Amino acid sequence: MEPTGELDHRFSADGATPTTWNEARDQLERAETYWLSTVRADGRPHVTPLLAVWLDDAPHFTTGTDEQKARNLAAGPRCALTTGASALHEGLDVVVEGTAERVADPAGLKRLAAAWEAKYGPEWHFDLGDGVFLNRGGGAALVFRVVPAKILAFRKGDYAQTRWRF
Which domain holds residue 35? Predict the structure, then answer.
């Protein structure tokens, strides 16, 4: 069952209609780059660009075991994943607010590795390690799923802000 979008009239043009879930999900599936926002242990924000895949109704991303985002998520799993276009008058920006959960089961990692390679090409091939992806250099990458709590879509041009709660 697909979620129902709710238009926020405060931030939408007169006569605007909600963005459909299919449009928002399509943007999340097709986007090539995303921005992950996490919070450092001392409360300062941390934002970084990364690649992600949409699978099983959620976005997934990777991080090296010693990267700042991995340390931030270990201290607090709440995050936001954003994608969209930098154009002012066209496009659709989408924000997924939720909780990052590790994906470590071999079957899930295998499906995600295949999804990464299908989306980004053979240069993004991952082998599987013990609960991690292994990159070409042999380094381990943790894999996370963002469990959505809320998704926002900001449609430009005919300006509409739509919200889905999960």
Answer: 6-104+145-165
In the 3-class helix/strand/coil scheme, how is 51-78 assigned residue by residue?
CEEEECCEEEEEEECCCHHHHHHHHCCE
- Residue pLDDT, tens place only, 77-113: 999 999 998 899 999 999 999 999 999 999 999 999 9
Please name every residue paired with 63 in a beta bridge, in sequence order, or none if there are none.
Answer: 142
CATH of the domain at 84: 2.30.110.10
Q: How far is the CA of 128 from the CAs of 10, 110, 119, 133, 139, in angstroms?
A: 47, 7, 18, 5, 11
Q: Vertex 157, ends 58 and 53: CA angle to 5°?
A: 20
How many distinct structural domains can be found in the chain? 1
**Residue 133 domain-assigned (yes or no):** no
Report the predicted TM-score, pTM, of the whole model to 2 decimal places: 0.95
DSSP 3: P
The reply to whether 70 falls in a domain is yes
- Longest distance between any two alpha carbons in the chain, whole Å: 54
Instruction: Note whether residue 34 is domain-resident.
Output: yes
